[in-house]
Amino acid sequence: MPFMPVKFNLQKRVKLAQGLWMIYWLSVIVGILIFSLGLFFKVELRKRSEMMDNNESHLVPNLLILVGLLAGGVSAFGGKVCHDSLDPVKFAKWKPMLKPYLLLCCGFNVLMLFTALLCFLMQFAVYLTLAEGLKNSIKFYKDTDTPGRCFMKRTLDMTQIEFRCCGNNNFRDWFEVQWISNRYLDMSNDLVKDRVLSNVEGKYLMDSVPFSCCNPGSPRPCIQHHLTNNTAHYDYDHRIEELNIWSRGCREALFAYFSSMMNSIGVLILFTIMLESLDMAGLKYLATALETMEDPENPECESEGFLLEKGVKETFADLFVKMKMLRGGNEVEGGEAAEAT
Amino acid sequence: MALMLVKFDMKKRVKLAQTIWFLYWFAVMAGVLVFSMGLFFKIELRKRSELMDNNESHLLPNVLILMGLITCGVNAFGGKVCYDSLDPSKFIKWKPMLKPFLMFCVGLNGLLFVTALLCFVMRIPLQYTLAEGLKNGMRFYKDTDTPGRCYMKRTLDLMQMEFRCCGNDHYRDWFEIQWVSNRYLDFSAKEVKDRIGSNVDGQYLMDGVPFSCCNPSSPRPCIQGQMTNNTAHYSYDHYTEELNVWKRGCREAMVSYYGGLMNTIGALVLLVTMLEIAVTIGLQYINSSLSSLVNPEDPESESEGWILEKTVGETFTDIMANMKAMSKGGKVEEAEAGVATVS
């Protein structure tokens, strides 16, 4: 009793082949889309790798690039088979390859499921990497003369401007590090000496933030220095002032950006899995419909297409038997080899 | 004696029709490109219209949008005619329309060329509009409480950060206007009163710039205030300091941005014009080769194709003669009408 049989005449077969060919071309385009999204994700990670300590994991974008290429290739092959399926002569050469091809498609779907799962789960890793990397970035902001870190200031400034954020959790992170290089501090000045001596580590700390934290939407010119001192500025109360500098932290901003990207890519891959499954089902129907033609010489005859030759349980039972035979065969061979030696 | 005569047999005609059909589809895409470039330019002008006093001229993008749409339509029609040209029964219905259509195409090509020239010429009015608008933009920077101007500060800050520029010609432009609103000045403080009293207009001027002028690539934290006072900052010399704030003026930055955009669009429109001329000539060859078949019943017969039936000089004299005949015919009709009214 075949699984989900459907009767086909010539017209239905032709329609199925044409529809399936269109869906295969859609799958090729989706494969190209996944490839380019993987590339885009890789480029974005590279751009901000300085703020992730250069040790972010490139597993997900690499896997996406691979999956995109494979999807494109597999779907293009499937489309070619579909295109040739209406011509018995051409189809004869593809016939033997169909069974392994469908098994390959199954395996590919499993790989895509794994990739989609990774897309959703690797966000935690990205979050942790960002937290660590941003903390170090703020620490190295002032080291514009140290080779390997001289662009950290520029990168962090541009990130704060672009993502509209300030500091790691909030702007107060800047109060806890020295972000002015010692080269620009007059160490002979009493004020400077007082500040440096006022803390254990000898750092020049102040209640100020860099200019990149400033919010252009604020109605008054940006107040960067003496942020917690209400009397230093006219008509200023730091507790209720909201528009002066960005209130969001950069870790949250960057994570929201990357996580939305990864979520959308994951959803796209789930959609691709469904599309590929549809392709596989259609191809199986087409192949079986062409195989079970009652009169092979007459193209206009009726035929039956099905998904599985026997029922689901029977197919699984067959598979188990085959696997046992394979193992049994191996054991017998192993026994023979042992006897021979 | 026809202009640029070419002999055609069946194969050559088929090849010509196929090539010109292909080129027509390219031309349709080129029309879409022109349309989208016009749309993009319009959006860019709108985004910064606040900085141009809201009176920038939208002539160029509107013309581009219109020409893009017309080009698309004309080329789609031409492609359809090409596709049908190989089937004599289908071609019969297009035949009477071809001559006026080709005239229209020639006129369209002329318009496209004028559009390309317009792209290069409209830079100059844009420069003046930008100069005027930026000067006012800076003056209204502090008016964040005045309706209609409350977003000028944000627009100007975002523009200075995006285009990496400061002030109109250079950063010293900010020294000449008051860019801090009076709401945030403590008028009871002596320092404030001194500054306001020190100039004729009673403005609070300072040698400082807004934060958006700061250059993130500078190795030291940004120095915004007391910029001309070397002693106010450690190890600072404002004569030699180059990386602290952006050195370029915003007028120069915006003009070069819009100028580059207009140059690119102008060059692309010129390319599209050349493509259009090519397809028009191709269609004329198809038309003439199909109408000059030696044996109209036999599709495989030879034929000739040309651009103009007679030489250029003869064609012009023909056109002048036609026009004279028409104007004389008009005069005769007028005289007859005059005679009729008199009598």
From TrEMBL, chain A:
Q: Does the record bear Nucleotide-binding in its keywords?
A: no
Stated membrane topology is: Multi-pass membrane protein
Extract one GO BP annotation from the record: cell adhesion
Q: Where in the cell is it found?
A: Membrane
The entry's cellular-component GO terms read: membrane
One protein family per Pfam: Tetraspanin
Against InterPro entries, the record matches this protein to: Peripherin/rom-1 (IPR000830), Peripherin/rom-1_CS (IPR018498), Peripherin_LEL (IPR042026), Tetraspanin/Peripherin (IPR018499), Tetraspanin_EC2_sf (IPR008952)
Q: Which residues cross the membrane?
A: 20-41, 62-81, 101-130, 254-275
Is Glycoprotein given among the entry's keywords?
yes
Q: Which UniProt keywords apply?
A: Cell adhesion, Disulfide bond, Glycoprotein, Membrane, Transmembrane, Transmembrane helix
* Similarity-based family: Belongs to the PRPH2/ROM1 family.
Q: Report what the protein is called.
A: Peripherin-2
Task: Give the originating organism.
Answer: Pagothenia borchgrevinki (Bald rockcod)
From TrEMBL, chain B:
Q: Which GO terms describe its cellular component?
A: membrane
For the keyword Transmembrane helix, the answer is yes
Keyword annotations for this protein?
Answer: Cell adhesion, Disulfide bond, Glycoprotein, Membrane, Transmembrane, Transmembrane helix
Q: Where in the cell is it found?
A: Membrane
Query: Is Transmembrane helix one of the keywords?
Result: yes
Transmembrane regions: 20-41, 62-81, 101-121
User: What organism, scientifically named, is this protein from?
Assistant: Pagothenia borchgrevinki (Bald rockcod)
Q: What is the lineage of its organism?
A: Eukaryota, Metazoa, Chordata, Craniata, Vertebrata
Q: How does it sit in the membrane?
A: Multi-pass membrane protein
Read off the InterPro entries from this record. Peripherin/rom-1, Peripherin/rom-1_CS, Peripherin_LEL, Tetraspanin/Peripherin, Tetraspanin_EC2_sf
Highest taxon of the source? Eukaryota
Name any Gene Ontology BP term. cell adhesion
Pfam families, alphabetized? Tetraspanin
Give the similarity note: Belongs to the PRPH2/ROM1 family.
What is this protein called in UniProt?
A: Peripherin-2
